[in-house]
Amino acid sequence: MQYRRFGRTELAMPVFSCGGMRYQHKWQDVSPKQIPADSQANLEATIRRSLDVGINHIETARGYGTSEMQLGQILPTLPREKLIVQTKISPVADAKAFRRTFDQSLSYLKLDHVDLLGLHGINTPELLDFCIRPGGCLDVVRALQNQGKVRFVGFSTHGPTDVIEQTIATNQFDYINLHWYYINQTNWSAIEAAARHDMGVFIISPSEKGGMLFKPPQRLVNLCAPLSPIVFNDLFCLSHPQVHTLSIGAANPQDFDEHLKTLAYLDHASDVLPPILEQLEQAAIDRLGADWMKTWHIGLPTLAETPGGLNIPVMLWLRNLALAYDMVDYAKMRYNLLGQGGHWFPGANGDRVADLNLQPCLAQSPHADKIPQLLAETHALLGGQKIQRLSRQSSTREHIL
User: Fold this and answer.
1) Parent domain of 346
2) Is residue 396 part of a domain?
3) Spatial distance between the Cα atoms of 370 and 289, rounded to a whole number of angstroms
4) What total of structural domains would you count in the chain?
């Protein structure tokens, strides 16, 4: 395993982290007696495999159902000084309720402190305000730090880049958990801002949100050769020194194996990556055209500016992936979450696009004349059964990293 300084925390962070939202029994709290023995045995085997390969950062959240409770059965048996334990709690208007939730998390984990506490899902200005206003959630965290129950505080986000950068600019956080991968590099300016503030940078879900790379289309496999898509994406992310760790949302002990192959390439990423990056770029140009790939994102409206709340940038991005790389399954999964994801994945899909006048909001786009038709075609290609966020589903027994 390789380790990187996790920003101003000074923690030696492994370049891979063990994420805790895939191996738990249920998304809802249940009595410990209701957790099947095989589920608990699988979780404990996964944690032990993680530690065996040098991944000592164990990351979970209060919103991950039984994850904390099940971790509480094994973490106290392990050498505490060798672990970096992170949990995350969503900010709320009532800071006392936030404190009660933290106490519940610590009780489930059966620890006297956590190394990292993330304010989970600062996705909107309102949620940021819940954290930073006088008497808000961050004041609670400071008290917990004074009591020795929390070492460092960070935040996780699925929000727009401007909200992420506003949160970083407060200089109140030691680290950040965010999305950034080869297929979606929108948040790079936020990572640069985090680096200026000497914050630790943790990339969320590089294999699932980064393209369902555990079941890639053959075209993507061919374009990433000689690496697998998982190893390519891991290497792409870790080739940037501003990135410190990638989450592996392991459902079982074997889920670390493909990621670990990345370690052999880290010291010569500059030799391995350029030919693959060129192949991927040219493949997209071949199918979508050079002008489109260079300019498709220019002048697109925000949700607030768009009739019907259509998330036009995301719709066109998913269309690009489906057509350029045959990533249709991934694009469908994300597309059909639109309208169901709340502030975690905001905006509507294109089921009403034919009824909306989009020309005024597209006035700054060089492709204004053709985007409405492209959105209709995107809905025809990707639309289907609506999909809920995982936290609203009943189980996580599916194999998703």
Assistant:
1) 289-390
2) no
3) 14
4) 2
